[in-house]
């Protein structure tokens, strides 16, 4: 009887642990290439991050595992907000656009207060 009770408690704790983890990303990410008319041979990228949940704090963005020179500081624009730096708290369907002028974005890790998510692009 005690072994059954211990097993039930262990199962309950495991279920509770996994139910607390939100595996679905709370952000939607789009990558849009564009060409500058002054330098048409160079492809730039705009990364658009849209928040899907209220009060989501985006703490940081890690681009290409910080291997390339893909610094996002200074090129961030937020919709419906005057804040232009990270960390930032956004509500549902607010977005931020990050423009990368000199790197090819292949992977983005988004660090938030609700979990971290990775997105890869071809």
Structure description:
The model is unreliable at 16-21 (pLDDT under 50). The longest helix has 19 residues, at 2-20. The chain contains one helix and eight strands; from the N terminus they run αββββββββ. Strand 7 and strand 8 (115-120) form a beta hairpin. The protein has a single domain, classed as Immunoglobulin-like. The protein starts with a helix and ends with a strand. The strands form two sheets. Strands 1-2-6-4 form a four-stranded antiparallel β-sheet, with no helix packed on it. With 122 residues, it is an alpha+beta fold.
What structural keywords apply?
122 residues; alpha+beta; Immunoglobulin-like; four-stranded antiparallel sheet; 1 helix; 8 strands; 16% helix
Mean pLDDT: 79
Strand arrangement across the biggest beta sheet: 1-2-6-4
| Helix-strand pattern | HEEEEEEEE
What's the CATH first level?
Mainly Beta
Q: Which stretches are poorly predicted, pLDDT < 50 over at least 5 residues?
A: 16-21
- CATH fold type: Immunoglobulin-like
Outline type:
elongated
Judged by helices, strands and strand pairing, the structural class is alpha+beta
Q: For the report, how would you describe the main beta sheet?
A: 4 strands, antiparallel
